[in-house]
Amino acid sequence: MPTQADDTRAARAGFVSCWSCKGPVAAQALFCHTCGAIQPPTQLDHFRRLGLEPAFDVDLDVAEKRYLGFQRAIHPDRFASKPAKERAFAEAQAVALNQAYETLKDPLRRAAYLLKLNGIEASVSRDETVRDPELLMEAMEAREALMEATSLEKVEKLQAKAGADAIAILADLSKAFASDDLKAANRLATRLKYLRKYLDETRARRIALEQAEGTA
Question: Of 72, 106, 134, 188, which has the maximum CB count within 10 A?
Fold first, then answer.
């Protein structure tokens, strides 16, 4: 009888044994090709689970279509009359697909996950103070400028610049991963995390100024 270790090795090779008929089934398949029984989720990375190449550049339209298609196939209504075991497998598949899609659709989480697949714990995955002096200085100067901004026009300019910087970082992340420069990708992901937080702060500052002007 196949063990869990056997199934893990088989999954990496591309096939596992169906729990129901014991026939071979593709590791990423939701249902057995032979008997049609729903399968439990196997040890796949998020990219393979959605049938995507492991890369930073992801076609989000394709990812969404596959995700929605898979979720429709395992909708709870389809398993209402099935045994508890199959309902549990459908729920587990839904959870695994949600985790994959939620991770890959977000550039920052996707970058951190790619780094993890390459054996690197991304700085953005750790809740600690960044020790990069240049990044810290950039963040400090940006926050000082925001605190000193007393008009909507100034805040909007700071917000626009931060947004443009974030877009530029996405392009640089793509290049870093494409060239396998994981150190640069890790640093860029950290900078993107700071910029996202800063953009949230600019939005909050903008709302506060708008409310102040409205009550003046």
Answer: 188
- Using CA atoms, how far apart are residues 96 and 108, in angstroms rounded to an integer? 19
Which residue in this structure is represented by tokens 């977000």? 106
* In the chain, ranges of CATH 1.10.287.110 domains: 4-105
CA distance 114 to 201: 28
Size (the chain), residues: 216
Per DSSP, 44 falls in state -
CATH topology of domain 4-105: Helix Hairpins (1.10.287)
Largest CA distance in the chain: 76
Flag the least confident range among 74-78, 96-100, 151-155, 209-213. 209-213
Q: What is the mean pLDDT of the chain?
A: 90
Full-model pTM: 0.85
Residue 194, phi then psi, degrees to nearest 5: -65, -40
Which residues make up the CATH 1.20.1280.20 domain(s) of the chain? Answer: 130-215
Fold of 130-215: Monooxygenase (1.20.1280)
pLDDT tens string 158-207: 999 999 999 999 999 999 999 999 999 999 999 999 999 999 999 999 99
Dist CA 166 CA 195 (whole Å): 7
